Amino acid sequence: MVLFFRQTIWIKTSYNKISKMKRTYIFLLAIIILGCSDHISKNNFSLILNITGELEQKIYLSKRDAGKWVNIDSSSVVTGEIVLNGHIKDPEMFYLRSGQNLTNIFIEAGKITFTAHADSIKKGTTSGSKAQAELDSFNESISLITEQLDTLYNQYREAVKNDDGVRLEELSELIDTKDDERLVRTIDYAYLNNKSIVSAYLIMTNNYYLELAELDAITSNFDNSIKQTKYVKLLLDRINNLNKVSVGSSFTDFTLNDTTGNPIALSSLISENYLLIDFWASWCGPCRRENPNIVAVYNDYNTKGFDIIGVSLDTDKNNWIKAIEKDSLTWSHVSDLQGWNSVAGKLYAVNAIPHSVILNENGTIVAKNLRGEELRDKIAELLD
């Protein structure tokens, strides 16, 4: 009996120990699972669309990647509550697309609500995204400037229809002045809010306005807490690319076909002449307006040692050739007809046109992005 009693005690004791171990293990496992679930969920987002009216087409939640649309989620529901989900690390700009309707929303982890009428998605309102609220606040602070710019752009389009050259020149100056004001406000905001992903986004979307030194200074001012985020990384890549094609750097060679399909290497044009690489396109209004000035400079200085190669960002060969003929551009022209994916454009960090680079006889970059009288003055300085 004693033995049985002892065995019973041992069995009970062992059972209690095992049970306690199991409970401890289950408890720890639960912590791990809950911890993992929390880690996963904190990087997920749920975008709830409250749509009144009826969408004509399927709605997509997308983002831009390397110049292409990447769909994150979609829905065939056309009205009422629509839920779109995805995974995200840092706040990032996404786009809602339904047919011709398009609007952008700063998405971040958590629950975000977007309310709009099906006919005017662009006028929708967003709640639940701190980044979007910050962007909305900044946009509101410069709303007077953007409204004035919208008015000027409308007047500009009207002047184009009327072929009013004097008015176009006047409006161009007004637009440049007002846009400079908008840019200054944007840069000031980025300096003052250097821990904000919204600031990095604003500078990224305006980087083509900025010279290398200024872009480098703004990006260097961003706090370490956002240095690994998408928009700061893109800015650092942009700075790296600009450094490769900065004034004083040697040219980067490329080979593209001319209008007849014959390949022309940039290096084959490096000679005793100064060479202007002119990035343009038939569809680019500012490029076409600058062409008469480039033609005039070319006609005056070609025999003195000035040459040009036009690199088109067109995708339609016929439009490209027609524009060359119409604008009397008598120098060499090349293109891979890949638009913004142009190999040469990427090599020279082109993300806005017109864009130009001047090489000396050794292939060293001596100037960039000179237009109007600035271009003429520089060529005169080099060759007169």
**Which bin fits the share of residues in helices?**
40-55%
DSSP summary, beta strand count: 15
Largest sheet: 5 strands, mixed
Order of strands, main sheet, comes to 13-12-11-14-15
* Tally of separate domains: 5
Q: Can you tell me the residue ranges where pLDDT is under 50 for at least 5 consecutive residues?
A: 1-40
- Mean pLDDT, as a whole number? 89
In the CATH hierarchy, what is the superfamily of the largest domain? Glutaredoxin
Please state the overall shape, judged from the principal axes of the Cα atoms: globular
Q: What class, by secondary structure content?
A: alpha+beta
Radius of gyration: 30 Å
N-C termini distance: 121 Å
CATH hierarchy class name of the largest domain: Alpha Beta
Per DSSP, what share of the residues sits in E-state strands of 2 or more residues?
15-25%
- Secondary-structure element series: HEEEEEEEEHHHHHHEEEHEHEHEEH
Which fold does the CATH topology of the largest domain refer to?
Glutaredoxin
Q: What is the count of helical runs?
A: 11
CATH architecture classification of the largest domain? 3-Layer(aba) Sandwich
Question: What does this protein look like?
Answer:
- The structure is a single chain.
- The protein has 384 residues and is of the alpha+beta class.
- It folds into five domains: 1-40; 44-127, Immunoglobulin-like (Sandwich); 144-189, no CATH class; 193-244, no CATH class; 255-383, Glutaredoxin, CATH 3.40.30.10.
- The protein contains eleven helices and 15 strands.
- The strands form four sheets. Strands 13-12-11-14-15 form a five-stranded mixed sheet, with helices on one face. A four-stranded mixed sheet has the order 4-1-7-8, with helices on one face.
- β9 (255-257) and β10 (263-265) form a beta hairpin.
- α4 runs antiparallel to α5 (197-205) and α8 runs parallel beside α11.
- The longest helix is centred in the first third of the chain and has 40 residues, at 2-41.
- Mean pLDDT is 89; it is low at 1-40.
